[in-house]
Design goal:
single chain, mainly alpha, 20 helices, 3% strand
């Protein structure tokens, strides 16, 4: 009798770089087919000067045509260099590499941060990640690398730190403890859309302030429970691989001498941390002073051409907003060098550069991924598919005869769906605001609450799409800390990791906005869900 052995096929995993290439090719083919069928959509935009609706026609652009291919080839370099996350990530990595290379982050983590209870550390990370959206998307570039490093040093799974930071920024995007760039970018469109019904309608920057403060706290608490009770147990323990094979060494050490060496090391580390703390406080003082207008040599980071302080701080030409990543990186560099000098972990400038270069090179592989992802996102955006689907959803909403709570729920769902293909909050609101705001006002719902709905819907699905530019940082860092290189984190696997967080936070968002509307609590000072 012959024995037959079962042949087990080895599962093959595509690297995310390959997947992004496939998605780019798929987009090219889809654009060609859809353009042949003349797929298009019309949506209304509001002329801010005349305050009248103007129809805008958008059609699928064939990127397999002569002009389409010319665009892809001629803009490849520009797409890469102008890709938002690239500059922010590189600048933040320089600062983190210096701070890590001098031993500053490791000592700070081991002596202080690692002593935090797990729930406390997770809560703080999510809370900081949520409020980081005050300044657009800098949280992705700074907090994901930093969280991975801190968790790794603390003997916790760095993959968990990456997930926590990414979910905190993405699924809490647009809420904070103070008004920020979101208000500045949305308010004008809300105001003009409201004027279609009531010319005297007033929308203030603090119209959503109470809601976003409460939402920040609730999301941080719920997010902490999800991470620690659901996500963390599934990941398990992170098993570090030894860089060098262990060899037996026989040494006769004088215990007293060993103790003395440890005491001396502790002494220098404490001194390094003290000096780093002094430098940090000094830099933060200078930083804050630069944000105060009308003082001697102050206001350097403000756009003084604007009248309102929030616009000076978060406006389109704000120096604070544009330079925030650099300032944080500079803080890490100076604090790291101060620690290195104080602790004697560095002897000269060559030590700083060599150590920082080693740490930086370990994360260099992400640049290839960013290049490929930037081409995919640019190609998809150029195809207009995302704009057309969003316009269709806005048109669908316009033709639905809902009011009250059903109208709010359907609007949240439709905007959340559009967010999967059009991730820009402002671009979505340009299309949706002429529809949503008047419909809400006719249903006795305030335009300020309508603005709140776009923030909630945008946050719900923000991180659940590879079309989000900063998704590449998330998936890139998962693979940097992946111990099984033969099984890379694919887009599907990366989304699967955050699915529990995405689903439960989405439910939290919906319950929060429903409860707020039913109870009728103020969403801002003197502003309520209803008119």
């Amino acid at each position: 009798m012959n024995d037959y052995k079962k042949i087990k096929l080895k599962k093959f995993y595509f690297h995310p770089i390959t997947i992004f290439l496939f998605l780019t090719l798929l987009t090219l083919i889809a654009s060609s087919i859809l353009s042949k069928f003349e797929i298009q959509a019309t949506y209304n935009t509001i002329n801010t000067s005349t305050k009248e609706l103007e129809p805008t026609l958008v059609a699928v652009e064939n990127l397999l045509s002569f002009d389409g291919l010319k665009f892809i080839i001629s803009n490849a370099t520009r797409n890469f260099l102008s890709f938002g996350p690239l500059g922010m990530l590189l600048i933040s990595l320089i600062g983190l590499s210096v701070a890590e290379g001098t031993g500053f982050i490791e000592t700070l983590t081991k002596r202080h941060i690692s002593k935090f209870p797990k729930f406390t550390l997770t809560f703080l990370l999510i809370f900081i990640s949520i409020i980081s959206s005050l300044i657009n998307e800098v949280g992705y570039a700074i907090l994901i690398p930093l969280a991975a490093l801190i968790y790794f040093i603390s003997n916790r799974n760095p993959i968990l730190g990456i997930i926590t930071a990414f979910c905190g920024v993405s699924f809490g995007y647009g809420v904070s403890i103070f008004v920020g760039s979101m208000e500045v970018s949305l308010m004008d469109y809300t105001k003009v859309a409201a004027s279609l019904i009531d010319e005297n309608s007033h929308i203030a920057l603090i119209s959503n302030l109470i809601f976003i403060i409460v939402a920040t706290i609730i999301l941080s608490i719920v997010g902490t429970i999800i991470i620690e009770k659901i996500v963390s147990p599934k990941l398990g323990k992170y098993k570090k691989e030894d860089e060098l094979a262990k060899t037996e060494q026989f040494q006769i050490l004088n215990l007293e001498e060993q103790e003395q060496m440890q005491l001396e090391k502790d002494k220098y580390e404490k001194r390094g941390l003290r000096i780093a703390l002094i430098i940090t406080i000094l830099i933060i003082f200078i930083f804050v002073y630069s944000l105060i207008p009308n003082l001697p040599y102050s206001g350097m980071l403000l756009d003084m051409k604007e009248n309102a302080y929030v616009n000076q701080l978060f406006g389109e030409n704000s120096y604070f907003q544009d330079g925030f990543t650099y300032l944080v990186s500079l803080l890490f560099i100076l604090a790291g060098i101060a620690y290195g000098i104080g602790s004697k972990s560095i002897k000269n400038d060559k030590d700083i550069i060599e150590n920082a270069s080693k740490k930086f090179n370990e994360r260099g592989s992400i640049l290839i991924l960013i290049f490929v992802a930037s081409q995919f996102i640019a190609v998809f955006r150029k195809s207009n598919i995302g704009y057309i689907v969003t316009a269709w959803l806005a048109s669908l909403l316009e033709h639905l005869s809902f009011s009250g709570l059903p109208l709010i729920i359907v609007t949240v769902i439709l905007i959340a769906l559009s967010n999967l293909l059009l991730t820009s909050t402002t671009s979505k609101w340009i299309i949706f605001s002429p529809v949503v705001v008047p419909m809400f006002m006719q249903a006795n719902i305030s335009p300020q609450f309508a603005q709140l709905v776009i923030r909630v819907a945008d946050s719900m699905t923000k991180g659940y799409t590879p079309l989000l530019a900063s998704f590449v940082i998330y998936i890139g860092y998962l693979n940097i800390y992946n111990l099984h290189k033969e099984k890379p984190y694919t887009i599907r696997k990366s989304l699967k990791l955050i699915t529990p967080y995405f689903l439960l936070i989405s439910v939290t968002w919906i319950l929060l906005i429903i409860g707020w509307y039913i109870i009728g609590l103020p969403i801002g000072p003197g502003v309520y869900p209803t008119l």
